[in-house]
Amino acid sequence: MAQSVSSSHQPAIRLIDQFGRRLTYLRVSLTDVCNLRCIYCMPEDMTFRPRHELMSDDEIITIVRMMAGLGINKVRLTGGEPTVRPHVVEIVRQIAHIPGIRDLAMTTNAILLPQLAEPLARAGLNRVNISLDTLNPKKFRFITRWGDLDKVWAGIEAAEAAGLKPLKINAVVTRGFNDDEVVDLARLTLDRDWDIRFIELMPFGSEADFAQTAVVRSQETRERIEAVLGPMQPVPGHDPRDPARPYRLAGARGTIGFISSISEPFCGSCNRLRLTADGKLRLCLLRDGEFDILTPLRAGVPIEEIQEAIVDAAYHKPWGHGLPDGLVPQSRLMNQIGG
Ligand code: SAM
Questions:
Q1: Using CA atoms, how far apart are residues 132 and 213, in angstroms rounded to an integer?
Q2: Is the pTM of this model over 0.70?
Q3: Phi, psi of 308 (to 5 degrees)
Q4: Ligand 1, atom 12: nearest CA belongs to which residue?
Q5: For residues 311 and 305, what is the distance between their CA atoms, to the nearest angstrom?
Q6: How far is the CA of 41 from the centre of ligand 1 (A)?
Q7: Closest CA to 77 of 240, 276, 266, 331
Q8: Which of 214, 293, 206, 234 is nearest to 29 (CA)?
Q9: Cβ contact 64:104 at 8 Å
Q10: Which residues line ligand 1 at a C-beta cut-off of 6 Å?
Q11: Segment (H or E) for 258
């Protein structure tokens, strides 16, 4: 039975780290399981955590409520693949009703959106980020190991029909796999009001060597796009906490952004915490330090006590990642953190 958490409508922001960053955004991994096996994300024979190690539905809601009581106002559901989590619509409905949560989004590969976009939108999901690295069906199958690109297009259409907007498309640029497609992906913004974001490949654990050899820096991606499609201009009114500064090609409906975690880290404006599917608070995507929330919750430690410990843990959020010093996160792959 979940403990009850009280939180007033606009809780004060209590998650402020030692550098004065206000942490108002929580990314919640619903599961480490995925229905694809992207080559840069996890091995094909990935072993997933047993069910009992993952947060139950009630535990997810209790922890998000606890975090909302500390000032979290934006939640993104991710994974693994969040849509494969049983009861995902009910989880969305309950999070959407938590006082203080003003923005509820999801990152997904879109494969299951044809059946889920409408119920998710009705349950209170505001928008989705969809991962799409290539427009070529054969390459898509290769990169994802068994994915069907037609299903992603159907998922994108379903998301738009359900009003899950603005639609953001995330493409991880990987040398030798899709770096020759960045122009075609960018061209999509000419007649669609999508935000296409090119992400630099990051190294994690056993997949780190691949990431280090295949990373393509944003500057190169940008130059490739501008060489064919012309210069892009910065879009005014950008939220400085958003890692992707948006640009627009002349006459384009949509925007183009670059998430340059490697070449231009945006740690100074980071407002994020991550909750892994096994109930650990991860303070930085690219550092292994975590704070266990699920164990004390299961042990019946009072919510207020756990909240105080979270405030303390968040205070110690590291300034930034250690990749320039050769510190590669080892404890988890991206699907186990929640990308
Ligand atoms: N399954 C969902 C999806 O495909 O969007 C959500 C989880 S997935 C781990 C979230 C995002 O992380 C995806 O856009 C994926 O491409 C990205 N990603 C995975 N491994 C990555 C890596 N090593 N570096 C950069 N991005 C990565």
A1: 21
A2: yes
A3: -65, -40
A4: 339
A5: 10
A6: 7
A7: 276
A8: 293
A9: no
A10: 34, 38, 40-41, 78-79, 81, 107-109, 131, 170, 172, 199, 201-202, 204, 211, 334-335, 339
A11: strand 255-259
Ligand 1 midpoint to CA 7 (Å): 32
Half-sphere exposure of 170 (CA within 13 A, CB side): 18
Q: What is the per-residue pLDDT across 129-152, written as a single tens digit (0 to 9) for each?
A: 999 999 999 999 999 999 999 999
The number of beta carbons lying within 10 Å of the beta carbon of residue 159 is: 27
Span 295-337, pLDDT tens digits? 999 999 999 999 999 999 999 999 999 888 889 999 999 999 9
The span from the CA of 232 to the CA of 287, in Å, is: 33
Tell me which residue has its CA closest to atom 20 in ligand 1.
41
* CA quadruple 18, 326, 205, 224: dihedral sign: positive
Q: Is 60 helix (H, G, I), strand (E, B) or coil?
A: helix
- Looking at the CA of residue 36, tell me the nearest atom of ligand 1: 1
Residue 295, amino acid:
T
Exposed (0-12), middle (13-18) or buried (19+): which is 142, by Cβ within 10 Å?
A: middle
Contact 127, 108 (CB under 8 A): no
User: Distance between CA atoms of 130 and 239, rounded to whole angstroms?
Assistant: 20
Q: Cα 52 vs. chain centroid, distance in angstroms?
A: 24
